[in-house]
Amino acid sequence: MSNATALYRVFRPFLLLFIFIVTMLSLFRAGILVWQYERVDNLSTFILVLLNGLRIDISTLSYLLFIPALLHSAMLYSTFAKIWLSVLRLWFFVCSVSVLFFELATPTFINEYDLRPNRLFIEYLVYPKEVFGMLMEGHLLPVLITIVLLLISSLFIWKLMKRIVNNEECLLVLSQQQKRNEKPRLTLLASFVLMVLILFVGARGTLGHRPINPSVVYFTTDPLINSLTLNSMYSVAFAWKQLGGEIHASKVYGKLSDERVIQLVRESTGVSIDRFNSDQIPTLRKQFPSFKGKPKNLVIVLQESLGARFVGSLGGSGITPNLDEIIASGWSFDRLYATGTRSVRGIEAVITGFTPTPARSVVKLDKSQRDFFTIASLLSRHNYETQFIYGGESHFDNMKSFFLGNGFKDIVDGDQIKDPAYVGSWGACDQSLFNQAHTELSAMHKTGKPFFSLVFTSSNHDPFDIPQGIVPVIDSEDDRDRAIRYADYALGNFIKKAKQSDYWDDTIFLVVADHDARVYGPELVPIKSFHIPGVILGKDIVPRQDDRLVSQIDLAPTLLSLMGIDDYYPMLGHDLTQSNVPERAMMQFDKNFAYMTNEEVAILQPSKPPKYYTFNRKSKLLEVGVENGQLGEIALAHALFGSLAYDNEWFRLENEK
Description:
The chain is of the alpha/beta class. The chain has helices at about 5-35, 45-75, 80-115, 120-125, 130-140, 140-165, 165-180, 185-205, 215, 225-230, 230-245, 250-255, 260-270, 320-330, 345-350, 375-380, 400-405, 430-445, 480-500, 555-565, 630-645, and strands at about 285, 295-305, 330-335, 385-390, 410-415, 425, 425-430, 450-455, 505-515, 530, 535, 545-550, 570, 585-590, 590-595, 600-605, 610-615, 620-625. Strand 15 (about 590-595) and strand 16 form a beta hairpin. Helix 3 runs antiparallel to helix 6.
């Protein structure tokens, strides 16, 4: 037997495993492309996804097999050969089943988020109780199908691995060499060098300066199609790698000097430069409130997953009649856009006024757990009682830690909701939540101290389990629509009760969504899926429809102005009580960042130049625009500001560092 033949026999199991897993991943990728055929432009797109996906698959397998491949030749020629082959078979089995698991989980994830499993897949694993309840209630059939397929496939894979890692054949190579007194050193050295070279190049995926990453294989403006060039294990692993140390936006979008970033974000506020008077906190500025009387209370109702698509007064399906009535009675925003696609991003924008970044929300980051600016920390300085009310467990998404460390004095959640009429996967139903909120607000009003309360709903959250018999059953609608109608019913009752309460005359109310129900579409940032309802209510609030372009980060400065709070804050948002503020909105979709003005949109992608569009308000779609370097620089400054402010602890009140 020649050394070349022996070398082939030694590493034949690795080659066969490569062929098996790459074939499996390619078939899954092709199947999803066929399923999502409407998103595939042409045959060229189909082929490009498969070819680019092959590069990622090879890289993934190279990482998975790197250590066992380097050990293989040495262990095979040792006295532990039989044990090693058993270990190798088990490793191959675990790798194959793990890859299969992530691929089987992919269709359900795509249905919800329009992307392959990513960072959200990891973050939800931290909360098994909530996630298990959601899966059992809302996705039981897909879960069962996945488990059954995984079990059946595991039996097949185990038998296949026994054939791939064939003990008798591998050991036969050794015995034949030993019979002929052949020394395996040359084979050992050659195999080691060859495997190091093959796996190193395979893992890097490129001969360039930097190893392969998702941006290398992305080639289209459709985020879903781009994500399909990855495999789901790689996508989740890449997200996991970035969780440890939150990546700075400059490594994603490019660099701009700190001085230029500060200059541009200050100018974007539309206020005089002399309002910024702190060297330590570059965006700290003076608030001149529009209301001059006794400071008012504040209640923010943050509605879970309520996009404009459901709201009749915003051109939606019209299943929120109570919200439509509320909108007609207050100061409503026709073109309000969320900054992200998660509740923590909505909390970040509404409660802190912080700009979105490609990192996790500041609600979950280490350096923002204390002394990070929130409207609660500002109002605490003005002797306000500050409170968070939630029907579920407030530890979810790290909310409890963030709130308690940043100005919230009291949290009412879970078991503290008295006599809930119904408890679903995510906690007490909205009716019970609002009943508790009314009790808490009434009690705080009686103390005579001003108060701020954040009420966060959850009934309109997958799996949409709501009390029965409250809203009529309509056969043609799905569970989400029914949950939205129930949440709307509960909200309507709460606002009616509030208007009859003792605290109504002294309180400003904001009803706003945290994000849309589902973000999807073939665009780099599907802007129509960021459109949300928002309305400010109160005794002295004149009803009107505001057609200006508004971002979620504009709400906090506006509320403070309406409340009569005279103080400093570091927020970049606009006080919408002023008529001459610039109009713009910012949106973060996965790693893409959009900066939209009335006329144009600049979209930043990882390691790529900006792309420019116009947003057609009628079709709600992006159309190719002309290059605008000035807009691109402004977009970059705002994309970088969040990382700079977080790293340098700029987003705080004075005397807190």
